[in-house]
């Protein structure tokens, strides 16, 4: 095996950037050097490795089989280095980056954060509200809030509380629903890829989802919730995201009430990272806030 100290880090960085962007010009722009400098770095690295990593053509730089094999490893390695440098920056000590599903961020957490900021004005909170599952081990994300069954491999996970679901609708529509069987006669709001189906609520009542009527469909659960608030129909929502609207009375929970979905909320962090003071503050605050909202393990 070729010792790493015989290969210049700048050369490996040039290879990774060209592989990712597909051209010397694009790599030169990102790295802030000339096209000739990138080309020389790539050529020297190939010579040191004794391997051609790219096919040069008028259309750009195409990876060879060996280049395609090592490019993902280089990409991961430089991502780890970038994370390490970011974590060493003292300016990050009071910056807390939290990855949260978009609907949870907009429907619950965003309404609670002023309380945390009032208690800890020195902490700057950054919310990464993306449906993509970020890996806190290889990113600048400090904490992730996830919904699932746990078992997050190679990560530290802490159970927060079980997920419950309940049908919700506007008060005027709720006045027309006297029993679960009445759901056959009102619009049912649906999303195309729900986390759980109506059977989790109907089956314990001895009812089948086939009784449900038609209704509007929206691609996003947040839109479904807004439609329910506006009177568009009944939506089977998970408790925490309907919490604010239920508390304000813009939504009503239909009897007999909440059911367990079999999923839970988890706080997920990297195993190899010591929690910062900001992270510790947020963890304690989050648990207290959840308990105050009635969400307990």
Question: Could you name the CATH class of the largest domain?
Answer: Alpha Beta
The computed structural class is alpha/beta
H/E element string? HHHEEHEHEEEHEHHEHEEH
Low-confidence stretches: none
CATH fold naming of the largest domain:
D-Maltodextrin-Binding Protein, domain 2
CATH superfamily of the largest domain: Periplasmic binding protein-like II
Number of strands: 10
**Global geometry:** elongated
Domains (count): 3
Q: Quaternary state, please?
A: single chain
- Discrete helix count: 10
Radius of gyration: 26 Å
Global mean pLDDT: 90
Strand-residue fraction? 15-25%
State the major sheet.
8 strands, mixed
CATH architecture of the largest domain: 3-Layer(aba) Sandwich
Keywords: DNA-binding, Transcription, Transcription regulation
Family: Belongs to the LysR transcriptional regulatory family.
GO molecular function, one term: sequence-specific DNA binding
GO biological process, one term: DNA-templated transcription
Explain what you see.
This protein has 297 residues and is of the alpha/beta class. The protein folds into three domains: 4-88, Arc Repressor Mutant, subunit A; 96-153 and 269-287, D-Maltodextrin-Binding Protein, domain 2; 163-262, D-Maltodextrin-Binding Protein, domain 2 (3-Layer(aba) Sandwich), CATH 3.40.190.10. It has ten helices and ten strands. It has helices spanning 9-21, 24-31, 35-49, 65-88, 102-119, 171-174, 199-202, 221-229, 239-248, 277-292; strands at residues 54-57, 60-63, 95-100, 124-129, 143-148, 155-169, 188-189, 234-238, 252-253, 259-270. Strands 3, 4, 5, 6, 7, 8, 9 and 10 form an eight-stranded mixed beta sheet that branches. A two-stranded antiparallel ribbon has the order 1-2. The longest helix is centred in the N-terminal third of the chain and has 24 residues, at 65-88. The model has no long low-confidence stretch (mean pLDDT 90). One of its GO terms (biological process) is DNA-templated transcription. One of its GO terms (molecular function) is DNA-binding transcription factor activity. Belongs to the LysR transcriptional regulatory family. Residues 7-64 form the HTH lysR-type domain.
């Amino acid at each position: 095996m070729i010792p790493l100290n015989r290969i210049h880090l700048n050369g490996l960085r040039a290879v990774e950037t060209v592989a990712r962007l597909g051209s010397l010009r694009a790599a030169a722009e990102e790295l802030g050097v000339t096209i000739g400098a990138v080309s020389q770095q790539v050529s020297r690295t190939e010579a040191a490795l004794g391997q051609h990593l790219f096919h040069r053509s008028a259309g750009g730089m195409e990876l060879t089989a060996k280049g395609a094999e090592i490019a993902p490893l280089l990409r991961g390695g430089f991502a780890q280095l970038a994370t390490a440098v970011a974590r060493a920056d003292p300016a990050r000590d009071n910056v807390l980056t939290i990855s949260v599903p978009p609907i949870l961020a907009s429907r619950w957490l965003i309404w609670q954060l002023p309380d945390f900021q009032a208690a800890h004005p020195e902490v700057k909170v950054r919310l990464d509200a993306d449906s993509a599952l970020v890996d806190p081990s290889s990113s600048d994300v400090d904490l992730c809030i996830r919904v699932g069954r746990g078992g997050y491999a190679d990560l530290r996970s802490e159970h927060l509380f079980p997920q419950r679901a309940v049908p919700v609708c506007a008060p005027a529509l709720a006045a027309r629903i006297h029993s679960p069987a009445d759901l056959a006669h009102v619009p049912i709001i649906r999303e195309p890829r729900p986390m759980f189906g109506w059977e989790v609520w109907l089956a314990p009542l001895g009812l089948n989802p086939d009784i449900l009527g038609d209704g509007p469909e929206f691609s996003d659960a947040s839109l479904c919730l807004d439609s329910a608030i506006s009177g568009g129909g009944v939506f089977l929502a998970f408790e925490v995201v309907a919490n604010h609207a239920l508390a304000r009375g813009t939504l009503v929970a239909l009897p007999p009430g909440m059911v367990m979905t079999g999923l839970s909320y988890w706080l997920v962090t990297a195993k190899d990272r010591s929690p910062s003071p900001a992270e510790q503050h947020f963890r304690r605050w989050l648990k207290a806030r959840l308990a105050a909202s009635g969400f307990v393990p």
